[in-house]
Amino acid sequence: MEKINSPIVKKIKYDKKEIDKIDSSFSNLKDNNYILSYPTVYIVDDKNKHQDQYSVYVGETTDIKRRSLEHLKEDSDPNNFWQKTENSPTSEMYIIGHDHFNKSLTLDIENKLIHYMSSVNNVTLDNGRTNPQSDYYTEDELDAIFSKIWNKLREDNKELFPLERVIRDSAIFKSSPFHKLTSEQLNAKDEIMMKIEEAINRNKEKQLILINGSAGTGKTVLLSSIFFELENESKHDDNKILEGSTNYLLVNHDQQLKVYEKIAEKLGLNKDKSVVSKPTSFINHHSPDNKVDVVLIDEAHLLWTQGKQSYQGENQLQDIIDRAKVVVAVYDENQILSREQYMDSEDMLRLVLEASLEGNYIKLHNQMRINANKQTVQWIRGLIDKKTVFNIPEDDKYDLKIFKDPQSMYKAIKEKSANLDNGISRLLATFDWKFIKGKHPDDEQYWNVKVGDFSLPWNLQLPKPRNKKVNYKDLSWAEQDHTIDEVGSTFTIQGFDLNYAAVIIGPSVKLRDGKLFFDKSASFNSKVTQRRTYKNQKIDVSTDLLKNELNVLLTRGVNGLYIYAVDEELQKELLKAQKGDI
User: Fold this and answer.
1) Is 293 within 8 Å of 316 (Cβ atoms)?
2) Which end is more exposed in the chain, N or C (fewer Cβ atoms within 10 Å of the end residue's Cβ)?
């Protein structure tokens, strides 16, 4: 690739007077034609000094002066973004040019800026839609040019434009609807949108679309993208089918719910707070007699299939289907973690067959989380699925390491976390040490994970640091700095990824006769160990659920996985595997 030049980034006050002067202001600028004659990208922002919040709009155009004046004429409403921004003393506009800009590249730069800006904590985005591009001549330069643009913007305002790595580490960024979808995701999205429009247009009801994919196949990003498009289409009159449609996004996971609520807030989708909620709340507030149009369910494997104190029904999925014309549910049966969510293979197969017969079953295959070669992924899957320890393959992309003790593993993961270039890294464990939510132990300050002399608190216990600039309630467990000194569980880390994950495999996972054995007597997870009443029978599903627990923990690491096993036989076998001695 030829040397890529630096971008031209100019800032002006955002008002009609300054915009009218753009031609003369930039006439003496070297390479002014890249601003005045080439396609450009622009960012308009206004800071609310009382709240330290920014309102931001990102756009692209082939004529920056004409487009800017058009914005000011779009709406005379004084509460409109453009009118408020023009009349604000703190508003400004960044105009970005580059000698390699063409229409497709500027559209992708615009999309990427929208993705980044929507992930900055103190930014509310005013954009409506994006237009990601497929193959084009300078596509291979996108990332390099974008980084140069971002760094130049940071030179002017580090608060509005944080470090790239900080943004990429945020849970909002990772779940954002503005990701550029893969061809597999795009095909799935097009098919689902077509199915939704067909169902609404023909007034079909109780339509279930199933999206199946293992951990790391991009289910959440796909669902987020579909929800954002549905909400946009519902507010515009150019799609008569979806205009005015009622759309809801549900997830039965506290940490993931935080992320979706924050995304909805940033994109202005939370005027009706209930559009993003937990399944039980949706069921309680909607009647089968007044169906909504579309319900999207993330982590649908976490839906309850039996009643409990907060949910009086018998099957959350069926209750949601009864209240919607179309339900789109993404799931992975290998991430079911509680007896209350258990569904046997016969019932799961029936759901899949029914969806398949309607052409409503989609399978995602491409693994996008674990940045490893095929052999390393197969090693992880072999441990989980085949319950067998194989020799650990060489892999210069992925750091897979077995530790001799938990203390040294904890030290290594802290070092990874301290180096900001490595991104977020955390210590995790199987639920094999006591923890009672809402209570404190009698003889210690915290519920701890203990192995020999090693002891560290379980998640969500340490006091949050007093930092007025950090709103901890909006952050997932792993995003909070102090949680490097806690041990995460499946209940806090499911649905998220880490750059490096260190996993203590507790005594519920043993090696006997060369195979993994799941010992429920060593687990403290009552949602796994207690028997389940299913089809009028008491059944023990602990083996399946403990296997799923291990699956969730071992598939969190993007660039590395560290392991220590408490069971002596398993630990010895893992250390042998690291040496290639099996």
Assistant:
1) no
2) N
Q: Is 550 helix (H, G, I), strand (E, B) or coil?
A: helix
Contact 266, 118 (CB under 8 A): yes
Rg (CA), the chain: 26
Tokens encoding 278: 């937990």
Tens of pLDDT, residues 21-58: 998 888 887 788 889 889 999 999 999 877 778 999 99
Domain chopping of the chain, boundaries: 8-162, 183-364, 374-579
pLDDT at 219: 93
3-class SS string, 343-404: CCHHHHHHHHHHHHHCCCEEEECCCCCCCCCHHHHHHHHHHHHCCCCCCCCCCCCCEEEECC
Calpha distance 474→456 (Å, rounded): 24
> Helix-strand-coil percent breakdown of the chain, rounded to 5?
40, 20, 40
Q: Is the pLDDT of residue 110 over 80?
A: yes
Residue 1 has pLDDT above 60, yes or no: no
- Helical H runs in 267-314? 279-285
- E-assigned strands of 287-340? 292-298, 324-331
Backbone angles phi, psi at 29, to 5 degrees: -70, 135
Number of C-beta neighbours around residue 241 at 10 A: 15
Residue 156 vs residues 51, 92, 94, 147: alpha-carbon distances, Å: 20, 12, 10, 15
**Pairwise CA distance, residues 83 & 103, whole Å:** 28
CATH classification of 183-364, choosing from 3.30.930.10, 3.10.129.10, 3.40.50.300, 3.30.1360.120? 3.40.50.300
Mean pLDDT of the chain: 90
Specify the DSSP class assigned to residue 482: G
- Phi/psi at 57 (5° precision): -130, 135
Q: Which residue has the tokens 């949680």?
A: 483
Q: What pLDDT score was predicted for residue 24?
A: 87
pTM for the full predicted model: 0.86
